[in-house]
Amino acid sequence: MREAAFVNKNKEKWQLFEDALYQKTIISPDKLSDLYVELTDDLSYAKTFYPNGNTVVYLNSIASAAHQKIYKTKKESKNRFTSFFKTEFPLLFYSYQKELFVAFIVFAFFTICGVFSAATDTDFVRLILGDTYVNMTLENIEKGDPMAVYKDANEINMFVGITMNNIRVAMYAFVLGILFSVGTLYIMMQNGIMLGSFLYFFYEKGLFWESSRTIWIHGTIEISVIVIAGCAGLVLGNSILFPKTYSRLESFKRGMKDGLKIMVSTIPFFIVAGFLEGFVTRHTEMPDWLAILIIGTSLVLIIFYYVIYPVKVYKNQLTHE
C-alpha cells in the first residue's frame, strides 16, 4: 500500500485520537485505550514500510504524547463498582442519547397503538393479555379488589420471580439487536402494545386512576429500564449497520461491549422495581400522596441518571482535563 493511501485510510481514526488527546473531544477511557493500541500498530506498520516518511514522525509524536494520557485515564479507583456507576458509565452513555430517544419514541408510539387497538376492537385486550389474566382481573373487579393480582404471591417469591423475568425481557431487547436492530424494535413494539392494552382495559372499567397509582409504583422504573435495554439493543444493532471508520467486526465488538455496560447499569434498577412490585405495590390501601411520591421519585431518578447526569459528567470531564 502506498503511504498516501495508508494515510487516507486511517487519518479519521488518528484525528479522533488526537482530538481526545488534546481535549477537543471526550471519549471513554476504554475507547481511548483501544485507539492507542490501533495507533501503535499503525506506527509499527509505518516504520516497516515507510521508515523515512512523515507518517512515522507524526504517529510517533502522538504515541509518545499519549503514553502518560492513557495510563492516567485508565487508572481505576479502588472501588471499581462505584467508579463504574459514578463516572465510567455516564460518560459512555452520553454518546448514546440518540439511541435512547429512538427507543423511547418507538415504545411510546406502540403504547398509543395498543390503546387505540383496544379501544376499537373488543377482543384485542384478550388477544394481547390472554383470557386467563382478563378473566381473573374481571373476577377481582367484581370482588371489589381489582389489584388483587399483586397480593396473591409471597413477597419474596414475587420479588425474585418478577426481577428475573424483567431482566430476561431486557436481555431479549438487547441481544435481539444483533438482528440489525429489528429484533430490539420488535420487543419495544410487543411491550408497548401490551402496556397500552393494559391501560385501556382498566380505563374502560372506570379504574384508570386506581390502576395507574398502583402499577406505576413499580412500573415507572420497570418500563423505563426496558426502554433503556432497548437503547442497548440499538447500540448493538447500529454497530453492525453503521461501522463508521472501523471494520464491521471491530464495530460489532465495540457495540457489544458498550451495550453490555448499558445492561449492567440497569440491574440495580430492576432490583428496585422488583422490590417495589413484590413488597410495596400490594399495599393498595396506601394514601394517594404516598403513591404519587414513590412514582415521582422513581421518574426523577431515571431521568436524572440516564439523561441529566451523563451531560453533567461529560461537561465536568471536559472542564478538568
UniProtKB/TrEMBL annotation:
The UniProt record lists the keyword Membrane: yes
Keywords: Membrane, Transmembrane, Transmembrane helix
Source taxon at top rank: Bacteria
Transmembrane segments: 100-119, 172-203, 215-241, 262-283, 289-308
Keyword hit for Transmembrane: yes
PANTHER family, A to Z: SLR1478 PROTEIN
Name of the protein in question: Putative membrane protein SpoIIM required for sporulation
Origin species: Tenacibaculum lutimaris
